[in-house]
Amino acid sequence: MNNLLITGGAGFIGSNFIRYFLKKYSDCSIINMDKLTYAGNLENLRVVENDKNYIFVRGSICNKELVDYMFSEHRIDCVVNFAAESHVDRSILGPDIFVETNVKGTQILLDVARSYSVEKFVQISTDEVYGELGETGYFTEETPLAPNSPYSASKASADMLCRSYFRTYGLPVVITRCSNNYGPYQFPEKLIPLMIYKASNNEKLPVYGDGANVRDWIHVFDHCRAIDTVLRSGKAGEVYNIGGNSERQNIEIVGTIIERLGKSDDLIQFVKDRPGHDKRYAVDTFKIERELGWKPEYSFEEGIDKTIEWYLENTEWMENCISGEYLEYYQRNYGGRAKNV
Predict the structure, then answer these.
(1) How far, in Å, CA of 79 to CA of 116, rounded?
(2) Given 127, 222, 228, 247, which residue is catalytic?
(3) Is 127 a catalytic residue?
């Protein structure tokens, strides 16, 4: 593996993976292709922009001519597809772009990767494709897909395309399905950075429903390690669940942030629940631990402390995100100022 195409590499997980990968491997080159939509931020990659093993190209995975050119020009060996529209709320308000990017874009990548006989294609998916769990049990790789939002449905569709390209054409595809990520450079529409930002500014903290929805949380660094492991050792045609073994209710997450920042619980404001809001996700990581030897390194307590510290030290980065397209989005769809949603 010499030339690695990363799609969506200016986003949260993709940019963390690029920084991780370039620091760890000096004999590989990364070509980062990103459309730079609202959550794509080249500031996330400032530290590597002059690295001799890094190339950035602005463009969409839905542009087949450009994708084909990328493979031809850079002799791509492997693909890691992070490119996706990813926020559930946005998918409820406007599903079209989710189908276009997450389904059609993935199909184009698969087609071109097949024509150039890549060594491996890693599809970054989500545990949300499995649907909803009750109070007990875990999603395994054998759990039937039952997505409940336009976002998760588009990701499940992409996963099925990937499976079909392995079974029909022999394309060496591997799918990863990860639980909720947190860590540095996460766009502040997501729970943890949004709560950190609002709490640090003494603003109300909007919590859906009763806040009892449960998610398994994994630090993005551990997710990057897992993707690296799958890229190098994962078996073609397989699915690997990735999780942090750190289940928390949303209200617990908010409470932890309030406590760490020394704020009052009075900031919490319960709001109308999201349509189709899944109650609980949790993944069984036995397969990737047993077969590939990966385990998370961060405890949630250590990870959340480091994450809060990072956001407090990077307030300018956060303000730049908040004041841009994010603000316009909430003004357009919810009315008022985004900071008061």
Answers:
(1) 11
(2) 127
(3) yes
